[in-house]
């Protein structure tokens, strides 16, 4: 093979790999959205100084702690498997946390240990991999304001609808009183006109 043919073949191969990687990521996300089990994660107030970084909402979840027997067995940043159930209120509840992948038919998400409290309560705090919800640029600022206001009103229920499949998770939407934050922002923007 001449060097020119080799260079062209290499170029085509690199181009195909560059197309394959993002396409695979998108298809994997779509697959989770299509076949995953949906959980509602009730959101909690976020740091009011930096709720947005760019064009997404930073989400924190009310259900992100579980008591563990011995805090020494858990390391900050360590990957864990969080088994989930749906509580009586319809929201996701942590059933257990383990270092090993749970058995079949147990809904779980791969997450990380944020920290374990050092005050004797042994509360393990979890960092979920779905803490950002991306929005269109035109709606981001209004969504930020609405989200901040509602997080301070305890009568308003705000949650993320998350699709989970085999440990992987994708946020489908953020809902306020069972209405998509996109629709709430759109309605507010139309009122201002």
TrEMBL record:
<dbReference type="Pfam" id="PF14345">
    <property type="entry name" value="GDYXXLXY"/>
</dbReference>
<dbReference type="InterPro" id="IPR025833">
    <property type="entry name" value="GDYXXLXY"/>
</dbReference>
<protein>
    <submittedName>
        <fullName>GDYXXLXY domain-containing protein</fullName>
    </submittedName>
</protein>
């Amino acid at each position: 093979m001449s060097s020119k043919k080799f260079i062209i073949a290499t170029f085509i191969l690199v181009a195909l790999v560059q197309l394959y990687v993002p396409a695979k990521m998108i298809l994997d996300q779509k697959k989770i959205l299509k076949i995953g089990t949906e959980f509602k994660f009730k959101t909690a107030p976020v740091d009011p100084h930096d709720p947005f970084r760019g064009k997404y909402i930073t989400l924190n979840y009310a259900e992100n702690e579980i008591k563990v027997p011995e805090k020494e067995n858990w390391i900050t940043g360590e990957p864990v498997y969080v088994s989930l159930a749906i509580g009586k209120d319809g929201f996701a509840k942590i059933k257990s946390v383990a270092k090993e992948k749970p058995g079949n038919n147990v809904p779980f998400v791969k997450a990380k240990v944020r920290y374990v409290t050092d005050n004797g309560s042994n509360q393990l705090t979890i960092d979920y991999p779905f803490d950002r919800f991306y929005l269109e640029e035109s709606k981001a600022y209004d969504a930020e304001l609405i989200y901040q206001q509602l997080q301070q009103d305890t009568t308003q229920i705000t949650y993320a609808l998350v699709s989970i499949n085999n440990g992987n998770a994708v946020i489908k939407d953020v809902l306020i009183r069972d209405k998509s934050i996109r629709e709430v922002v759109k309605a507010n923007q139309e009122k201002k006109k």
